[in-house]
Every structure is written in structure tokens, then in C-alpha cells.
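Page header: ASSEMBLY MODEL / two components / 302 residues total.
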Amino acid sequence: MVSPLTSLSPTEYGRLLEGILGQAAGYALSILRNRSDAEDAVQQAAMRGLERLVSYDPRRPFRGWWFTVLRHCCIDLMRSRRAHVGLDRAELRDSASGTALSWQDLADALDRLDLQQAEILRLRYFGGLTYEELGQALAIPKGTVMSRLHYARKALASEMKGSET
Amino acid sequence: MTRPIEEYELSALIDGQLEPQRVAEVRSAIEQNVALRAEYEHLLANDRTWTAAARAAQFTPTVRLGTASPSSIWVRVWVAAVLTMALGGRLLPKVLPMDQAVAMLVQGLVLVAIVTAVVWISERTSPQGDARLTASS
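Prediction written out in full:
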């Protein structure tokens, strides 16, 4: 019997990755707030995922697994480059358009939420993960995803309303 | 009898994550209940705003995928072997009595072995099949 853990080749991995790079970059940017750092995080996650391909079970959603790798890379980068973040955020804000809600406003509001709520919303909106993928990335059942996401949305709406006043 | 609508099911409806039968029940409840409809519309409006905002953060990164290098332990083993050969080639003619011609032959063979090993190691440790990825969407 062939183990399902060995059925994804590096070529297939590259192909799967190619389809999610835009969302991965957006997700990394929402955490790191710096385009260059976000690109580094995606690059690191791509290589780390390749090295750890054996830990991926192809029966489960690829995106849920890979975003876990990316999240850890973002956290590692954020810790190592924390000093630069403040300056880059200020630069980004100056260049943001003044219309509607910017991604920076959304990311700022997420930073003010409870960590669990912020993470599920970041993965949902910036990462574009489905409920099944969210369940895999956060290691929680689908029912928990459903309720946590809903209450996180309510918290975010309340946070944004509060920051307007 | 239809079970009561849970508040989080409104979110799941927006995300298209409800079972088809439950979708009909929740939609029917939204039609009939003004408060529920207001809550649903509020959630829907926020979802659209946040989705659009988050999409604006996307960009196209360039990612390079190289074949993973062999484990560092094997590189260390080969480096140690090359150093041993180099040292052995120097010491052997001094330890064992031999003609100058034989000593030169031994040193020549050791040199060839070292060059071969260095070439092999450099081939194994440099990225191969390097692929450049860009976002397809």
C-alpha cells in the first residue's frame, strides 16, 4: 500500500503553490506591513514547505497546510525585524488611497482584536481560506470555525465602529 | 419542525458553507424576521467591504524553488574525506619508504581524487532544477 504522505511531488507542489501566491503575499503583507518582508516570508515558506513536503497529507486541503507554514515564517520574520515595522507602516499609510477602507485599516483593526479572532479573520480575508482550510490551518473542527469566524466578525465590526467615533 | 436559526449561521450563509436544506430554512427566516434580516445585511455589507480591502493587499511575489540540498551531515562527511585524502597524500611518501617516482604518482592520484570529490560536492550542494514561480491569479 502506498502512503498518501508521499504522493505530492516537488513539481506538483510548485504548481499548487503558484495558484495561491497572490493571496499568500497579501496575507503576509497584512502581518508584516512591508512588501519586501512579505515577499521574503512567502519565499521562505515556499522553501520550508518543500523541505517538509513529507508532512503534508494530500487528502487534506493544500492551502490549509501551506498557510500554517507561511504563518510561522511570518511570525519568525516579524520577531527578527520588529524594529523596522513601525517605519514601514508609516510609509505605507502615507501612500494608501483615501477612499473606502484600505487594507492597512483592516490590518490595523485586526491587530487590536483577540489573537484567535484576528488570525481566523486574517486567514479568511487576506488568505482566502475556506472553512475546511481554516479548520486545517487552525487545527479546529468545522463547527468551531463557523462560530469563531462569526463572533470574530462581530468583534471586528464593533472595533471598526469604535475607531470611527 | 425547523430548528431555530443560530446567529453564526448567517455568516455561514454568506460564506456558502451551509447545507442546501439549511440554506432554504435560513433564507426563509431572514425573509420573515426583520431583526434577522438587518443583522444579515449588516454582516453581508461588512464582508464585502473587508473582502475588497484585503484583496487590495495582494501582489505578485517572485518565488524561486530550488531542489533541497543534501543534508549537511553528508557534506561534512565528504569534506572530511577530502581533507583526509589531502593529508594522506602528503604524509604517505614520508611514512612509507618509496621511490620519488612512486611518491609523485601517489600524490598525482590523490590530487585527481580530491578534484573529483570537490566537483561532486559542488554539484550536490548547488540548487538544481531551480524553478521560478509567479502568481497565476
